[in-house]
TrEMBL record:
It holds the Pfam family MazE_antitoxin. This is Phosphate regulatory-like protein. It comes from Halalkaliarchaeum desulfuricum. Residues 34-79 form the SpoVT-AbrB domain. GO terms for biological process: intracellular phosphate ion homeostasis; negative regulation of phosphate metabolic process. GO terms for molecular function: DNA binding.
Length: 358
């Protein structure tokens, strides 16, 4: 192989080629040359070509992203496999380990041990059931193979975040409805729905991490990686809103006496304000019109301050209650108010998305 490999692909325009060695901050530049009067060529460093098995006759792929052009060796579609020793893992640690492997993007997850116990197998199945697309594919005495049966390229991060928005808002609304009626069944339903929200959050995280590993994943999604980051950041806020709706439902189960009407009315007004902030922030995030997104997101941010003021007003109503009830209801007011803060965070993300790119 020559010191540097020339790539002669007609129709590819490059301002410059920047190469960063893995684990190093060294940078190299290349001058673009013209051959044959119409073909632009640029050389690539031999060390990179050798490390990635690129030689004479190899094919590479180019992925444009704004004013950047990413180059990667062309490879056949292959399933990625990750292996994990679970000998010392049980319970929540084992669940977190399986979840981490899933979010990291492995198509096949091989769990190994000298002997996988019945308890570990039960925990693994519970973990698999909580993750979208996974199935236990094969089991032996020493291994459990988990396979992702969904094609990640067919998953839509936009649809997943949209679904999270609907679930989070409905959970918050129903949590306050359960509080008004002291409806234990509705409270438990809200708590159960949090699992659906968590599953979608993990799907969004898996898709996002895939876009960080390779520009091919972002191209299949049809979204820039910066937008995928904005969606992932906002999905995190929606997941937290679901957590607080769940907290309200748990607190409602502890209440034994009806909540005074004036407090219920004030809480419902607060929830409506919070829901409006979240809806406006999500509309701004999804808007393709920068001016509209900026205006709507700024309005949502301004509303957060009013939510804080209204929450303090409700706190003043609690002073006339006995300490135990006042404490429980105070926690509920705080959770509703925090949901407004999370909506404000989504609005901030929408503002960043709408801002001009440098």
């Amino acid at each position: 192989m020559a010191a540097e490999t020339d790539l002669r692909r007609p129709g590819i325009y490059l301002d410059k080629f920047i190469y960063t060695r893995s684990g190093s901050t060294d940078m190299e530049t290349r001058k673009v040359q013209v051959t044959g009067g119409s073909t632009y060529t640029v050389s690539i460093p031999k060390s990179w070509a050798t490390a990635n098995d690129v030689g004479a006759g190899s094919e590479v792929e180019f992925y444009p992203e704004g004013d950047a052009l990413f180059l990667t060796p062309k490879t056949e579609e292959e399933r990625t496999e990750g292996t994990l020793d679970v000998t010392d893992l049980t319970g929540e640690e084992l669940v977190r380990a399986v979840t981490a492997m899933y979010v990291s993007g492995f198509d096949d997850i091989v769990l190994e041990s000298s002997r996988i116990t019945t308890g570990q197998r039960r925990t693994i199945r519970e973990a698999v059931q909580s993750l979208v697309g996974l199935e236990v594919f094969e089991e032996t005495k020493e291994t459990v193979v988990i396979r992702d049966l969904l094609d990640s390229s067919e998953l839509s991060i936009h649809n997943a975040v949209t679904r999270m928005r609907l679930i989070a808002l409905s959970m918050l609304e129903d949590a306050l409805a359960a509080l008004e009626e002291l409806d234990d069944d509705l409270s438990r339903d809200v708590i159960e729905r949090d699992d659906d929200l968590d599953r979608l959050w993990l799907v969004v995280s898996r898709i996002f991490r895939a876009t960080l590993r390779t520009p091919k994943a972002a191209e299949k999604l049809g979204l820039p990686r910066e937008v995928c980051f904005d969606y992932q950041s906002s999905a995190r806020q929606l997941e937290r809103i679901g957590d607080h709706a769940t907290k309200i439902a748990h607190l409602t189960l502890e209440l034994e006496q009806p909540v005074p009407e004036e407090i219920l009315e004030a809480l419902e007004e607060l929830r409506e304000e919070v829901a409006q902030v979240i809806d406006d922030a999500m509309d701004a995030l999804f808007s393709e019109d920068r001016d509209v997104a900026t205006r709507v997101a700024n309005d949502a941010r301004k509303s957060v301050q009013r939510i804080d003021e209204d929450a303090r007003r409700i706190d003043s109503y609690l002073r006339n209650l006995d300490p135990a009830r006042a404490q429980l209801l105070g926690l509920i007011v705080d959770s509703v108010s925090r949901c407004g803060d999370y909506g404000g965070n989504i609005a901030e993300t929408a503002l960043q998305k709408a801002a001009p790119s440098p």
